[in-house]
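Sample intake sheet
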Amino acid sequence: RRASVPWCEISLPASNDPGSHHRFAIHRYSLSFSGAAVPTFEPFEHRQALAQQAKGVLRKQMRGVRATIPTAAMAQRSRQLQTRIMQLPIWDRVRTVLLSESAHQKGVSTAWVAQQARSRGITVAYPRVDYDAQRVEYRIATEADLEDRGLETAEAPKNAFLVPPGTIDLVIVPVLAVDPDGFFVDDGSGAYDRVLRDLAQAMTLAVAFEFQLIPEAPRTSEDVPVAVIVTDRRVIEARNKRVESGSENTHHTNRALEEDRRAIQPNLMVGPIHRADGAGGGTGHRTGQCPQEGF
């Protein structure tokens, strides 16, 4: 007897209407003989690969939608979004912030946030990927010094002053799509998977335009959700319950939640970091991708 049973569902934006979504059910098959079910296997690598493929579709669609929006309109949306960021009741607890800046002026800009943070005496750092060592460094830089090295976001120069990871209080994450649980789709480089693992003590905030909000993002074992999503229209507290404000125990609570999250992901492994085109250190493939034969 051959029975189709739901395996997982993904939700993708409709190509002709960014505000609507289509849900797709992915099925697997189980076999039974003489009324006795035969165990079926769902290889971890296959599940990972399906999620990565779905992320690839979302990246393409979101970049396509973003490309249709005039530059002036994008700049206006970025300013509205940045105003909302600076209105959050978190800045009195921030001493060092890790920002991101679009490398091609196509995504969300945080340049004004950087200016406001510096005016308050807050250290502003940007990431830089060391492809050979497969790690992300955090360096102090101004927006004028940032370099385009193949990612969606620009990176700090190599000779900029290093910031110890443990001193970073707030991480602002650039995304191509994000859901209400705080799970997101980034540029596919793997850099921010590593950042969020490294900076488990920090508050985390994703910045996205309103059209980049989706009902549910594809997820892999590498993914770590953010705590807050800020768009040009609203602020959303992610449903993963990560604490963002209110008590002196926030740091300890967030650390405990992060440890709990890792504990329920026994196969946790962060994939290699690579440039968007697959060049650079590591390989051009993310953890979870597998050959197509027998798929």
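Comment: The longest strand covers residues 17-33. The radius of gyration is 20 Å.
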